[in-house]
Amino acid sequence: MDAKPHYFRIGLFVLVALTLIVVGVVLFGAGLFAQSKLYVESYFGESITGLSVGSPVEFRGVRIGQVEQIGFVGSVYPLDPNTPSGARYASCVRVISGVLRSKLPEPGYPQVEALLERMVLQGLRVRVSSNILTQQASLEVNFLDPNRFPLEPVPWQPKYPVIPSAPGELTTIKDSIDNILSQLQAIDAKGLSESLEKVFTSLNTAITEADLAQLSKEAYSVLQASRGKIEALEMEKINASAQQFVASLNRAVEEANVPALSRQVRGILDQTDQKLAALDAKKINADIERVLASLEKAVADANVPAISGQAQALMAELRTTNKYLQQLLAPPPGISPPPSIPEAVARLSQTLARFNALISTERPGIERILTDLRELTDSLKGLISTIEENPSELLFSRPPKKSEVVK
């Protein structure tokens, strides 16, 4: 057996091992194997007790990555603590998570960042989920109400895509309990107890002062009276009257001959439709157009400028005539001008008022005079008719007696 060492083989093995080590360091240093992970960051304004590097990141209960780095926002991004945004975000916790691309809901999507941005707009949020027993925490990614947890922009340019955070369930429960305790502390328990004591005292006094026995008797009397009135009602008579009314109503409906009325109405509608259909709309339109054309022709034939000139000449003549009339009606010198029309109307109104007053005052005498005149007229009519029949009566007052010889 040859125990001589093979230095060539040993040296070759050492060179190959060193070469592999160098290549691995270069590859890992270049990050070629890290392309299977998507790094995202989130900001928490609450305590993340129990969360540490390596804690799982779950999406609807499925582990898709782990926590890679935990720190404060103010230690990574430059913030001015004197500004409201700087004072708010400086103490927030920045958590970087590594998510395996193969674990995403759509691993074959060409642009993972665009997919993540779309999911964030749809309500994708991350919050801390703590285990009460083990005090270990993890990051839970899920879709929440975007209106309840809106997307807030940050005053810096994030290094990785951002998944907004939402308060954890334990934090929400704790805040609710704190609010309830604060409201309970704000309640004036002493004043409330005193008010309740006063209410109970007043209620007890009212019950004591109320004569329950008398109230019970009165209520019983009212019930007895109501029962008596109900029993006194002649229900059979009322039912019979109602049945008669219904029968009369049915008979009236039957006698109305509703089908005949419906046929008559339908016939009237059909006649109306026929008359409307018989109208020659085209002829009517033609007549209207012909009338309009005639009217336009008449307007065109009218010598409007000549008519306008004649109207102006007529107005000039009217002005001249008015001037002559004014000169003619002007009063002679030294005589006061006649009253104006308003004054004449006023005087006429006064005269009529006086005349009406005189008639109202002397109405009985006037009526008596008119009666006498009417009687005198009737007497004259009778006299004239008598004279026409027997003129001798005017002289002898009565006709002469017949002679006895004649008898």
Describe this structure in words.
- This protein is α+β, with helices and mostly antiparallel strands.
- The chain is built from 13 helices and 6 strands.
- Among the domains are: 36-169, no CATH class; 343-399.
- The protein is 59% helix and 11% strand.
- Strands 1-4-3-2-6-5 form a 6-stranded mixed sheet.
- A hairpin with a 6-residue loop joins strand 5 (124-130) and strand 6 (137-143).
**C-alpha termini separation:** 222 Å
Order of strands across the widest beta sheet?
A: 1-4-3-2-6-5
**Percentage of β-strand residues:** 5-15%
Rounded average pLDDT: 75
Q: How many E strands?
A: 6
Range of helix content: 55-70%
Question: What is the H/E order?
Answer: HEEEHEHEEHHHHHHHHHH
Determine the structural class based on helices, strands and strand pairing. Answer: alpha+beta
For the sheet with most strands, the description reads: 6 strands, mixed
Poorly predicted regions: none
Radius of gyration computed on alpha carbons: 61 Å
**Any idea what the shape is?**
elongated
- Helix run count: 13
Quick structural overview:
This protein has about 400 residues and is an alpha+beta fold. It is about 60% helix and about 10% strand.
Helix and strand topology:
Blueprint lengths: L6 H24 L6 E8 L11 E4 L2 E11 L11 H6 L3 E8 L11 H10 L2 E7 L6 E7 L25 H18 L2 H21 L2 H21 L2 H21 L2 H21 L2 H21 L2 H26 L11 H21 L1 H27 L3 H4 L11
Parallel strand pairs: 2-6
Antiparallel strand pairs: 1-4, 2-3, 3-4, 5-6
